[in-house]
Amino acid sequence: MGNRRFSGKVCRSIPVLLACVIIVCLLLDHYGKGKSASRSVFAMDTYMELMAYGTDSEEALDRAVVEIQRIDGLLSTGIAESEVSRLNAEKEGALSEDLRYLLERSMEINEMSGGAFDITIYPVMKAWGFAGGEFRVPGDEELSKLLAYVDMSSLKYSQESGRLEMPRQAELDFGGIGKGYTAQRIAEVFAEYDIGGAMLNLGGNVQIYGSKPDGSEWKIAVKSPDGALPYLGILSFEGLSGGAGGSRAVVTSGGYERYFEKDGEIYHHIIDPRTGKPSDSGLVSVTVACGDGTLADGLSTAIFVMGYDKAVELWRGHKGEFELILFDDQGKLYVTEGLEGSFVSEIEYEIIY
Ligand code: ADP
Ligand code: MG
């Protein structure tokens, strides 16, 4: 009897217990979703800020930091054992998956930009002291000799085997595309974790992922090359659907990022492959917004070199693939049609259609 009464009590308690468990689970889930984590990292010569919301935010960011270090270990010309340093020394080799992808994308951007983007720029970067060493202004004769090795079409690459052979004097530099690729890779890695949203800033390469827990818009300040203004404007984006496809990149290239001054002249780190000198296209800041972080980074460097007219022509030929914010040396600001309504600035700007 007593046993029956006891088991009857248990039976009646089960739904109550289940309800309690469900409430606790819902609370835990709610608490988990409200969790956020952040990391500051110095890698690839820049300060990086990472921030994520969601149950797995800590684990996801730990994994992101590992990914940054892994890619830095492949691309860094400052690390003697990196894959790029080995290629630059040995002039041939079978490329890793990452390098194959980056080389193929670089070739595509080289073609799109009519040669303005060229990863064989490295010998020239070294001559200016931008790749370690002392800053200096190389003479015209020295530059014209080095420019003979700056030409991506001299690379012999097999897409089937992934083997690369390059001329004896050629050297590669993925500095114009590496951070955007890293940000994109991290967004892909995030899809393996339970996170609702994340924002990465890898030294001017911003990548947003998913949405913010409170449902508000992502806001990205576009850096200003002009000390008088804190930023050129603010870009706002609605939350994205999350998962591997739910990310967007906003990448800015400017001559004010890395430069040195000599005899009153400013020399910056984005080089025009036609002259071997810091690009003087009239554009002082180029921002590319795009779903593809690698393309956004490569294009921001390329368009900085190409200048306004060619930039607009390129954009018109690829409408819907990327959007631009251009700022020129006359203080004029231009924004492509696709960002109309997402960009707010204190400076009046012209919309490019
Ligand atoms: P940052 O690295 O400051 O974010 P960018 O993405 O514009 O800026 O990349 C600049 C880097 O790209 C340089 O430091 C150099 O490594 C490389 N680079 C410079 N000029 C070119 C060029 N014309 N084509 C490809 N890469 C370039
Ligand atoms: Mg770039």
Polypeptide structure, described:
By secondary structure, this protein is α+β, with helices and mostly antiparallel strands. It has 2 domains: 4-74 and 178-352, T-fold, CATH 3.10.520; 76-165, Orthogonal Bundle (T-fold). Helices cover 36% and strands 26% of the residues. It is built from 9 helices and 19 strands. The protein has helices at residues 2-33, 57-75, 83-90, 97-112, 122-128, 140-147, 178-190, 293-306, 308-317, and strands spanning 36-43, 46-53, 92-94, 156-157, 163-165, 197-202, 205-210, 218-223, 231-237, 247-254, 259-262, 265-268, 271-272, 277-278, 283-290, 323-328, 333-336, 343-344, 349-352. The strands form 5 sheets. It has a 9-stranded mixed β-sheet, with helices on one face. Strands 3-5-4 form a 3-stranded antiparallel β-sheet. Strand 16 (323-328) and strand 17 form a beta hairpin. Helix 2 packs antiparallel against helix 7 and helix 7 (178-190) packs antiparallel against helix 8. The protein is globular and about 85 Å long. The structure holds adenosine-5'-diphosphate and magnesium ion (MG). Magnesium ion (MG) binds next to helix 8. Residues 117-119, 121, 125, 130, 173, 175-176, 179, 203-204, 253, 257-258, 269-271, 273, 297, 300-301, 305 line the site of adenosine-5'-diphosphate (ADP).
Query: Would you tell me the structural class of the helices and strands?
Result: alpha+beta
CATH class category name of the largest domain: Alpha Beta
Describe the strand arrangement of the main beta sheet, using strand numbers: 1-2-6-7-10-15-16-17-19
Multimerization state: single chain
Q: Mind describing the biggest β-sheet? A: 9 strands, mixed
Give the CATH topology of the largest domain.
T-fold
Please tell me how large the radius of gyration is.
Answer: 25 Å
Mean of all residue-level pLDDT scores? 91
Order of helices and strands: HEEHHEHHHEEHEEEEEEEEEEHHEEEE
Low-confidence stretches: 1-8, 24-28
- Please work out how many helical segments DSSP would assign: 9
Bound molecules: adenosine-5'-diphosphate, magnesium ion
Percent helix? 25-40%
In the CATH hierarchy, the architecture of the largest domain is: Roll
Number of strand segments: 19
The domain count comes to 2
Shape: globular
Q: CATH homologous superfamily name of the largest domain?
A: ApbE-like domains
